[in-house]
Amino acid sequence: MSSKEFFRFLPAVDVVLRSNFIASALKDAPRAQLVEWIRSGVERCRQEMLDGREFDAGSAETFVVEHARNSWRFEQGARQQTVINATGILLHTNLGRACLAERAIKQMVAASGYANVEMNMTNGKRNKRGERVCRLFSMLTRAEDTAIVNNCAAATMLTLQTFAKGKEVIISRGQLVEIGGGYRLPEVFAASGAIMKEIGTTNRTYLRDYETAINENTAAIIRVHRSNFFQGGFVTEPDIAELVALGQKHDIPVIDDIGSGCMQSLVDIGLEEPTVPDSVKAGADVTLFSGDKLFGGPQAGLIVGKTKWIEMLRKSPMMRALRVDKVTLAALEATVEIHLQGKASDEIPLLQMMHETREQVKQRCESVVQRLQYSADFVVQVIDTISEIGGGSVPGSQIESAAIQVHGPATEKFASALRSVSPGVLATIREDSVRMDLRTVRPAEVEQLVQCINSAFEAMEN
Ligand SMILES: *Cc1c(COP(=O)(O)O)cnc(C)c1O
């Protein structure tokens, strides 16, 4: 039989749609998607026939049904869902960076119906969107004023465009960073319309390089924090206070893009990261940072600094395009309140996780391991490991931690089984074993984690 003769076995789309399996297991899939998957399944089957594979009516239909079932599985995997983060990476960009504080979650829920985004309920008068949140941010960072946009990338873009469209902004060659997810500083400059005036070298840039570069077309100086890599050895650059002094001398604003949004020094846990209040105190005209990194809030871009410059940003027509919604504002408000009340270490998950000792994490690992049920094919141990901050913050950070290590016959398959239970567990694979660092698994999630791991072990039996 030539391959084309098998074509008559290709099932009709509506026949597959009515098949028992599709009607039961895939009953929740939207019809339009089902039709599309079945069509592409038929197309694939046709291709297989052309490639010489033999089918009969039954196997062709099974092929198409399987294709639809797999498409549905991928669709389910893509659906936004709760994930237990057992990677030990605290700010995991693929997992949405910072976990919100309980209070912030409550506020988001409260704001999701009608909410007074632009009104004071005491006098019924209109006020500016996020006016109170901005005030609280100014208080927390000791800045004169605050503007809020969608993320730090938007903050950089808006600042460059508003201060420097068609003009030069001085930047050290050591700070032309790529943050990831398509954020590369030279491209941000290009899109903003500001001209990048590169100075110095990769490893050394001096204050005099900045001074020499200043001319009548200079609109600003920008310092960009190397938030996801580090330089060592023969390295020099002026600090923010020196840049501020230079900027003031020439009446040029200094933009400090610190990204990570650290509010308090982290030296107590051995991490060095610039803080927002320090940048403000040093006199930066505007300081930019993300809401969902070390600040521990929702995705947002915060711009804090001098009134003159923040006002200018607020008036930009781009501001309307970059503003955040009421739900984000609610989460930001609750998170900034927690910081202001001095309760950040107690209430913000990221900071709680960061400050736990290895011993505490280890105890959690032990308590989980005691309740696991698995076959003799597996060896489960609690081991020492290292957690990292991740998410473009505190590069090279190493926090002593502990993990559950599962050594067994099919590492990839076990990791996949862990992802497939509900809620899915994201682990890492190291040296032929699956590792779960419990620094990023909160005490309240432990019960679920035990069940999830046991379900994954069970799935391995079948
Ligand atoms: C993370 C980061 C950004 C991008 O922030 P998003 O909020 O992800 O847009 C920009 N600049 C620096 C220095 C950063 O660390």
Outline the structure in words.
The structure is a single chain. With 462 residues, the chain is an alpha/beta fold. Helix content is 43%, strand content 16%. The chain has helices at residues 13-17, 20-25, 31-50, 57-78, 102-111, 131-141, 152-164, 185-192, 207-213, 240-250, 276-281, 307-315, 317-322, 326-340, 344-347, 349-355, 358-369, 411-420, 446-461, and strands spanning 83-85, 145-149, 168-172, 178-180, 183-184, 195-199, 218-224, 254-259, 286-290, 301-305, 379-387, 399-407, 424-426, 428-430, 433-437. The chain has a 7-stranded mixed β-sheet, sandwiched between helices. The radius of gyration is 27 Å and the shape is globular. It starts with 12 loop residues before the first helix and ends with a helix. The mean pLDDT is 95. It binds pyridoxal-5'-phosphate. Pyridoxal-5'-phosphate binds next to helix 7 and strand 8.
